[in-house]
Design brief:
By secondary structure, this protein is mainly α. It has helices at about 5-15, 20-30, 35-45, 205-210, and strands at about 180-185, 190-195. The protein is built from 4 helices and 2 strands; from the N terminus they run H-H-H-E-E-H. It binds a DNA duplex through helix 3.
DNA sequence: CCCTGATTCGC
DNA sequence: GCGAATCAGG
């Protein structure tokens, strides 16, 4: 897979929206989590709370003279690059998990009254209003309101369909690591998937691999076919 | 163990 | 430029 414009755009949007690299990789498909991270860094959209970089400003921690760790020699103790990047001054969305829910600051009194004078000057600005098409009232000079906060990051898959499957593996919970063997009938309220850890390299867990992949017996020695996924033809 | 992002470096 | 391997914290 190559990084087309669309894929880069999606990566950027999801990354800035707070999705994890794994989620982005899964969504894009054909790339690994590392690929996503690598691309994100190459694109310059770093940052976001990293579990491993929580600390900062280390005054020369006396570490053991660890030998050259893995491969080639590290580039010595290069001075920390200034990293000249501070373009996107947009307010960072809160880390995942928190629900900032930027409330528009319920103003007990509308600001149309006290926001007229500019800060730092006693001169009240002239109150100029006009009504636009549709009846909205235009702001007057010096009346700027706080910028609308960016929309909070949205979980793409927040809600479970129903309580009875709240802890079951549902379609949107599927990934490469859980067994996709269907349990029950699609469309029914409790339809879900096995969800066990997969037999590595297979889409099913060990048990269901045994059901999905069966050796062919010689003709004439066939046993009755095993139960099909979904429990077989619907019985009513 | 699982997860996360950061970094390195051979390709 | 790409991304696997690796590191390192939660």
């Amino acid at each position: 897979m190559s990084w087309t414009e669309e894929r880069i755009a999606k990566l950027t949007k999801m990354w800035e929206g707070g999705s994890t690299a794994s989620q982005i990789a899964e969504e894009l498909g054909g790339v690994s989590r590392n690929a996503v991270i690598g691309k994100a860094h190459r694109l310059g959209l770093k940052s976001r709370p990293s579990p491993v970089k929580a600390n900062e400003a280390k005054p020369a921690k006396a570490k053991e003279p660890a030998p050259a760790p893995r491969k080639a020699a590290p580039a010595a103790a290069a001075p920390a690059a200034p990293a000249p990047q501070a373009k996107a001054a947009l307010p960072r969305p809160e880390p995942r998990g928190t629900a900032p829910a930027p409330k528009p600051a319920a103003n007990p009194k509308p600001s149309t009254e006290n926001s007229q004078p500019l800060p730092g000057r006693g001169e009240p600005m002239p109150r100029i209003h006009s009504v636009g098409p549709g009846g909205f009232v235009r702001q007057g000079p010096g009346e700027q309101q706080a910028p609308i906060p960016p929309a909070p990051p949205r979980r793409r898959v927040p809600a479970k369909p129903s309580p009875e499957v709240a802890d079951k593996t549902h379609l949107l919970d599927l990934n490469d690591r859980v067994c996709r063997w269907p349990m029950g009938h699609p469309g029914e309220a409790d339809f879900h998937f096995c969800g066990e850890k997969v037999n590595p390299g297979f889409p099913y867990c060990v048990e269901h691999c045994g059901r999905a992949y069966q050796a062919q017996l010689p003709r004439g020695a066939r046993r009755p076919p095993p139960p099909l996924p979904f429990g077989g033809p619907r019985v009513r």
